[in-house]
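so my prof wants the structure for this chain in the tokens format not the other one, which i didnt know existed until like an hour ago. anyway here's the sequence
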Amino acid sequence: MNGIFNIDKPYGITSMDVIRQIRNATNISKVGHGGTLDPLASGVIPVAIGNSTRLLEYILNNNKKYLAEITLGVSTNTYDREGEITKQADTSHINQEDIEELLKNFKGEVSQIPPMYSAIKSNGKKLYSLARKGINVERPPRTTIVYSILLKSYDNPVMKIEINCSKGFYVRSLANEIGELLNCGAHLTNLRRTASGSFSISQSNKLSTVIEKILCGDPKDILLDPTDYLENIDQIYLSENETNLVKTGRRIKLSPQYSLKNINMALAFNADKSFLAILAPDYKTSEWYPKKVFPNWSE
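here's what i got, hopefully its the right format
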């Protein structure tokens, strides 16, 4: 089995719980996901199986879209509804115009300090395990990009916002910062990922549906070809001779149309139009060299 399932992760389980269920259903260990979702979050999580797991690093780089519910007036130590309350304040004076004006500050390049309650590691230990012991460590800020942020509704003290951002953006940190800037506190109460790259919530399948189809031996209609979902990567088609060279890890001549083109990689397909490799250009020698080769892609 080889491909990607576009799964709508349910609320209350971890991303690794999803992987374990797919592994148990397929009896295949080679399973991975394309971007962690907290247990309190639901929505799109691409799950790769077989050879497709070797493409996850490229899928992880895709942009993400979220629908977030943030409650003003209450801050917590985890920045979400599961944490201990650290601050409470009145929000009756905050109107929709205040929020819309504030959100403008978060568009573009954003520097965020990851929350202590996160899976990031410090000296080999996950931050959330340290936080549970009352240990706070310094976290270097991370730069991400917010392409758009839109207030969908506001019914004081609850707002709903839609976010289109690059990978690595922490919506919980956004909620906390909104509360700090409004001087009233805030926390994330609900989060749904509506897209991960080209994988959308409208085309996703419930985890239970995926498991059922796998156990019935009929998952092909929901098992996707990951090469159809790798955004902004050029595709090239090789001759039979080029195919044989790439299969054995050797270089081939850089196509004339790419000799002056500034690209990082390309998806290479063989003469039968089957995916074969990820190639990268070497402009000094005018050659393609294989980064990853998949001689038995469909297996």
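also thought this was worth mentioning. The first helix runs from residue 15 to 26.
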